[in-house]
Design goal:
2 copies of one chain form a homodimer.
Chain A lengths: L3 H11 L4 E4 L7 E3 L6 H16 L3 E4 L5 E5 L9 E5 L13 H16 L8 E5 L13 H6 L5 H5 L15 H8 L16 E7 L4 H4 L4 E7 L1 E10 L16 H18 L3 E3 L3 E4 L9 E10 L2 H21 L6 E10 L2 E2 L2 H19 L8 E6 L4 H5 L5 E6 L15 H20 L1
Parallel strand pairs in A: 5-6, 5-7, 7-16, 8-15
Antiparallel strand pairs in A: 1-2, 3-4, 4-6, 8-14, 8-16, 9-12, 9-13, 10-12, 11-12
Bound molecules: N-(aminocarbonyl)-beta-alanine (2 copies).
Chain lengths: 432, 432
């Protein structure tokens, strides 16, 4: 068993780096705004290095700033069994998404260390850079570079989406350099291979809580793509330009967003616009340019492609037929992620561990099984890892299914339960 | 007659202060970004003081930064006949909107000066601060304070809508102080009364050009109101939040904008959204808050009120019934401007002057009348002035009716024609 008190204390103390958006009265009742590679991310990264060294672990930082912590086993010529997640957050993020996965991984290493447990091969922890894609709009980009799915240069050149006031948008590489985490080790599965990748994450959905369950064992993740849509019209005077003479980029973009929601319903998928910018931005002048994002998801790759095609048709129709004198619309793909199936061996290790851990609660629950298989609605670094090594995930209960919001919450009991499941799964997988 | 060459040279040379957005190859083929009270506005204001002094005119600056230039007449105990417009522009503005009115007024003073023409009473020029409402979102705010329509403190406290990178939003008063144009004279029609207010402005619509006409004589302006709409929902994860569980502020705002356009069509009015901001602004997180503006116009005060009421109903419906788990919507009024009728005496003076000036072209035009009465689609400082003194406006031809865009254009001939009409109208009104 992990040390639950230490796990929770560690989690909350690291949230001092980047805490924001208080929502309750207790000092831990705040959210987070630790955007990738900002000064708070730098601080928590230095903290992680210290903790790893205190356990006698080796730390390497690769060219994407991914941090690998290695605890040697009996045979160190074989690749390590890794636990990983991310320490970056959304601008209005919470204390669990990503953070729980890294801190629980560290707690597993601490538990192995204090019990002097010798594993067969090395066991380790990875903190993946910019998982959220909230600052640099390429989600899970650093595990993707590791997996050979995205070229290093493309990732390095990714520009931040909301520049700091008074500055030009920085690239991911510039910010890695600035905070001192541009490592020399290539970000590559060939250079730093893994025997397996296990990840705890909050569910971010309501199924566990609604079902009175303790643990989710994730068998795969839905497909999702991100796009930026640019709509170009003509700026002109709001008081003197008849409706029929307009090329109003903002009105056209609003119509497109409404249409994209209809497409999502038609295909039983999800489409969301989270960013919307209009230029020049003056009350009595029509916008000449609007840029907005589209986050499109579906459990089926094929249905996702169809849903996105429908959006393209609908947007073209708005641009040509429903915008008076017409606007132009241009799509840029930010990321495309196929649906993922996780590894049977990893899933089996988690199942065995979950059986054991959940047994604690099953008497009180009248013998009811307290874990279930789930599919992830969100993308995770494990999806990229799974392309190059056996991978699977453990989901922890999420209050009201809410995440990417300051009051996202996973109870201490649920955090600890998931960490115990992780510990058991890693020890089992290493043994096997 | 004014000196047309000097008029055009002066106009373009002052556009060096704040020129932006080149659209052609000639050095004058650029737009403007001279937002109220920025450094370029400061420079052009200092330039205006010098020019006025060179003509032996007195200059006063009031508490709103309005600049009054006075040329004495025979009897200086009576209020002056004023010409006025504004030197501030839209962020993607052109070289004529406002600027032509001030520079033509200066040219009239220069013409009177070089002919040593003595007027009955004083004649003057006023440069109204922040007419556009593009930086501080209260349109024609400074003539409104002068007319006693808006309290000084309300205007002073108005915050800029797009803060400079790296700074807090500044108030109008802070910026007046910063550029040294916070005058001591009260901004008030009781302290600085006017005998009349004449304003040249580009038409900003297509009627003159389409009709092959030279001059518009403006008999009034339509009513218009500005609002800021705040939509509050809940930020949550784009990949794990089912559509049915959402409180998506951005989608709701998009629906409202689409509905507002329907309301505009229903009432044959105009509704425009020029500013739209979504927070927190992350691809995979729904916005918790969206703020957008509404610019609503109608020739009839009553129909405008009805059209805005319809928007309120439609937005409420979107918020309550068409946004899954619902959003909240809050309206803030930024400005409300009733429809205006200009003064018959001022209109008559312009008509007589226009008859004389247009006679130059009427032979070539086969005796066709080359001026027409028009109603303004845009608001102008003359609308506020008209509440406290006889007022009327002269419209100049606008290429393709386009304004609030860098390539807004009024030909030298049309600029000069309007200035000649202004000269004749002012001299006649003063005489009468
Ligand atoms: N888990 C998570 O929020 N990851 C970000 C990638 C996504 O948007 O699905
Ligand atoms: N003429 C002009 O563009 N004035 C600004 C006020 C308005 O939006 O009507």
């Amino acid at each position: 068993r992990v040390n639950g008190t230490r796990l929770m204390e560690t989690l909350h103390s690291t949230c001092e780096f980047g805490k924001a958006h208080p929502w309750g009265t207790h000092e831990t009742e705040t959210g987070m705004a630790r955007l990738a590679l900002n000064d708070d991310d730098k601080r928590v990264r230095h903290w992680l290095i210290e903790q790893a060294k205190a356990l006698g672990c080796k730390v390497t930082v690769d060219q994407m700033g991914n941090m690998f912590v290695f605890r040697p086993g009996k045979n160190n010529t074989i690749p390590p069994v890794m636990m990983g997640s991310h320490l970056d957050t959304q601008p209005t993020g919470g204390r669990y998404d990503g953070i729980l996965g890294v801190i629980a991984g560290l707690e597993v290493l601490r538990t192995l260390h204090e019990h002097d447990h010798q594993t067969e091969g090395p066991v380790g922890l990875v903190n993946w850079t910019n998982e959220e894609g909230a600052r640099f709009p390429m989600v899970t980009v650093s595990s993707a570079v590791w997996a050979g799915e995205i070229p290093l240069e493309t990732a390095w050149n990714c520009k931040e989406v909301t520049p700091t006031a008074g500055q030009k948008p920085q690239t991911l590489k510039q910010e890695l350099e600035r905070i001192g985490f541009l490592g020399e080790v290539p970000a590559s599965y060939t250079v730093q291979p893994m025997a397996a990748h296990f990840e705890i994450h909050i569910e971010q959905g309501p199924i566990l809580e609604d079902g009175g369950l303790k643990v989710g064992i994730v068998t795969g993740a839905q497909a999702y793509n991100w796009y930026e849509i640019e709509v170009k019209g003509r700026d002109s005077h709001a008081g003197t330009t008849p409706l029929s003479a307009r090329r109003d980029a903002l009105l056209a973009a609003a119509k497109m967003i409404v249409e994209s929601n209809k497409a999502a319903k038609e295909f039983s998928g999800l489409v969301t616009t989270g960013i919307f910018r209009a230029e020049p931005g003056s009350v009595n002048t029509m916008a000449h340019t609007v840029r907005f994002t589209l986050d499109a998801r579906h459990p089926s790759d094929e249905q996702l492609a169809k849903m996105v095609s429908r959006c393209r048709e609908l947007f073209e129709k708005v641009a040509k037929e429903e915008s008076e004198r017409g606007v132009e619309v241009k799509w840029t793909t930010l990321t495309e992620n196929m649906a993922v199936q996780f590894d049977k061996g990893c899933i089996a290790a988690i199942e065995e561990s979950a059986d054991e851990v959940c047994a604690r609660f099953e008497e009180a629950a009248g013998g009811r099984k307290l874990w279930t298989h789930l599919t992830s609605g969100a993308g995770h670094d494990s999806c990229n890892a799974s392309k190059r090594c056996p991978s699977a995930m453990i989901f922890a209960v999420t209050r009201e299914g809410m995440s990417h919001t300051p009051d996202e919450y996973c109870s201490p009991e649920d955090c600890i339960t998931s960490a115990d499941v992780l510990l058991g799964a890693v020890v089992r997988y290493d043994k096997a």
